[in-house]
Amino acid sequence: MTASSDIGSAQPELLVPPVPAPAPGVKGPGQSSQLLTWLGVAPFFLFALLFLILPTGFLMVGAFQDPQGHFTLVNFRDLFQPGVLDAYWISFKVSAASALGGAVIGSLLAWAAVQGRLPVWIRPTLMTFSGVASNFAGVPLAFAFICTLGRVGLVTVLLKKYLGFNLYSTGFSILSFTGLTVTYLYFQIPLMVLIVTPALDGLKREWREACDCLGGTSFQYWRYVALPVLWPSVLGATLLLFANSFGAVATAYALTGSSLNIVTILLYAQIRGDVLHNQNLGYALALGMILVTGLSNGGYIWLRSRAERGRR
User: Fold this and answer.
1) Does position 291 have pLDDT exceeding 80, yes or no?
2) Of 22, 91, 264, 300, which has the fewest Cβ atoms less than 10 A away?
3) 3-state SS assignment for residue 152
4) pTM of the model
């Protein structure tokens, strides 16, 4: 033992050569990497400045001005006119209905694709379609639904021809509140699928196995294990869907024109219209929309962080 320890102690130590310090005026590897990192995120900050911060600041200034550029609070007083309040209320109802419908149907679709015993090709197909459909909006979406559910649309004609059912005899109209809500569901449901699927993937198999080993039922697993983990993600995604539909303008304008008085169409009429032209009132309307969507997005961010802490 002594000889071995003497031999081990006699082994030479490995000497690590010192790293030479960079010359004055020469950046080290860490500084160069940090500079490249900032250059990588510079386009994001530039985009946010040009298309988010500056337009929002312009709206905030214009909302407190009259057409002559003088400070005034008249624009915010005019927000309480019956027509403006009705526009906000209709937008709120359309957004809430499409958000709740998209949340329920989208969550069930995501659960069927992730947790259900479906063929393996269902999930990638659903995710691919959701990625495309969640970005399909505006004039093309409005035209597609007019051709599908309009008075002479494909589905309307087929229902009347083969089933003897006149869809429009029930009071339905593609230009109404119900028609706009159904149209919004086309991109709300796929967006919910994309958001909720990672949360469903976060449910560990060990949790279900532990519940089964302890004699728990499927209802008890969802009531006491899965839903407490999922509800922040589902509720946050619902708020995001609400903000998404509340700020939509192109689809509603192309589909309904001025027949449905939602706040985005009223805003467009105040800024670009010939009859209701009051640009500064339009700025105040936009500022109110920013407040509503900002609160919704803030709630989504808070709930998402809560969900991530719960999964950890």
Assistant:
1) yes
2) 22
3) coil
4) 0.82
